[in-house]
Design goal:
The complex is a heterodimer. By secondary structure, chain A is of the alpha+beta class. Chain A has a domain at 1-42: Histone, subunit A (Orthogonal Bundle), CATH 1.10.20.60. Chain A contains three helices and three strands. The longest helix of chain A has 19 residues, at 20-38. Chain A starts with a helix and ends in a 5-residue tail after the last strand. Helix content of chain B is 39%, strand content 20%. Chain B has helices at residues 7-10, 47-50, 61-73, 179-196, 236-255, 301-309, 315-326, 330-336, 340-350, 356-374, 385-397, 402-414, 420-426, 435-448, 450-457, 464-474, 481-492; strands spanning 11-22, 59-60, 77-78, 85-88, 98-101, 108-119, 122-137, 141-145, 155-159, 166-172, 208-218, 228-233, 264-268, 273-277, 289-290. In chain B, the strands form three sheets. Chain B has a nine-stranded mixed sheet with strand order 3-6-7-10-1-11-12-13-14. In chain B, strand 6 and strand 7 form a beta hairpin. The mean pLDDT of chain B is 91. Classes of the chains: A alpha+beta, B alpha+beta. The interface between A and B is large, with 37 and 55 residues. Strand 1 (61-62) of chain A pairs parallel with strand 2 of chain B.
Amino acid sequence: MIDREQVHKVAHLARLDLTADEEAAFTKQLSSILEYFEQLSELDTENVPPTTRAIELSNVARPDQLQPTVSHDELLKEAPAQEDDFFRVPQILND
Amino acid sequence: MTTAAPVKTKYEAVIGLETHCQLNTKTKIFSPISTEFGAPPNTNVSPICLGYPGVLPVLNEKVLEYAVKAGLALNCQIAPYSKFDRKQYFYPDLPKNYQISQYDLPIAEHGWLEIELVQDDEPIRKKIGITRLHMEEDAGKLVHAGSDRLSGSTHSLVDFNRAGVPLLEIVSEPDIRTGEEAAEYGQELRRIVRYLGISDGNMQEGSLRCDVNISVRPVGQTEFGTKVEIKNMNSFSAIQKAIDYEIERQIKCLEDNKPIFQETRLWEEGSQKTISMRSKEGSSDYRYFPEPDLPPIEVSPEQLEQWKSELPELPAEKRHRYEEQFGLSAYDARVLTDDRTTTEYFEAAIALDADPKQVANWVMGDIAAYLNSEKLTITEIALKPAILAELVQLIEKGTISGKIAKEILPELLTTEIESLEKFVESKGMTQISDTGELEKMIDELLAENPDKVEKFRNGKTKLQGFFVGQIMKKTSGRADPKLTNQLLGKKLKG
């Protein structure tokens, strides 16, 4: 279903640093999850039109009006690191 | 024997633009938080813009309206069914690690806009295809600490005020061939969004950002050359210069048999060059999937008709009309329609039956010069369109001379008045066009200068200018110049 190379690639895209053991374990686990989902393809969908969602709902929008929100301090406080009024993030490296 | 064709005519450039345009809504695209520019860091943020767990984004209805109107103005087909998708990538300016954008069902597709280049006062028009237009959210801003550049910084600080500000991404077809055409395309796009009133189109503040895709190929070849992306231009002239530079660089690579890499290059304003940016491995693997928190959008035919009916006359239509209806030159039509407030001013004046060409001359001449030097817009001056219309009409009727009109203009630009006719009367500035009155003055003048009259009659006809000048001096410029010249000529010849 999914091979080690694919797991390695997806981990890289998600910026996850996996050990060799983890890669092997996740390859097995992800394959079993994907196999489970694969049961869906047993259904005959020949005459079922494609959709992007399960609930029949469209055009949910709000007016362009300001609403009060949580204070800036409370929002900043939740971050792992802050500096003055900023969120602080570790050094960014180009690949 | 062969003669080498000039290198530049042997190749052609193929250029497409990707433009991001910030919409001027009060609140963000998916959260009811202010979009104000320049607020203190992280004050215009909410749990939604920060992607905190459990939040639900809800589309701002104005964003949809503006996107559809922009799509209509760009002659696009509006999608009857459209949706949002998640575009995954990792960068600290993106709090959720995905951007809510539109992938395979954008709100508008298959449009075009017309650009007009004026050469020797002849308009050259060209249609540039619009591939697609979609809605998405903007990212935050990074400040790199310990260095003014990313490389060498020890850590970075993030301001999420801009995260979630609504953007339209507009992608052109590769129909552009020169830097000049690209700059004109960008300007036309800016005029359109400004006419629609959906964006301020300010490039310095980043409300309008253009990325360029460019390749070069030998003329006659149908396949494209290797595509290079250029970023970081913050003016239309920078776009033009970056493209011109890049065309030359790529032609030189081909001529020298050197490879052209598919890469992103940055325009450096200081050195006027493009420089290579290290490419990000796997950066194009965005793994789009439908945004489950936002239901799809279905624009009904009624809604579409309503929005269509609200569109203003657009810049290209206005340019054509000004040329055809008012007989203005392509250049004049272009200058007058460049921004909406100027066209509204111009149209308000001619609606009062003032001659369009004369009004155009005042607006583009003395008034524009004043606006430029005082850094004002046309709506901020005391001179209202009605008074300008009256000015043009009083000159036409001969009530005031063109010279007087120029003299009183500075006062009219800063002082609001009710009626120009009363104003010039009260100042005694009306033109003297009474033959008897002028003749009397001329007789007096000739009597005062018998020597000069003598010289004139002996052939020094240039002296007529001196006499005209004297009459103007006596009347403070109020004498009708044409009539004065005519009467003087007659009297001098005896």
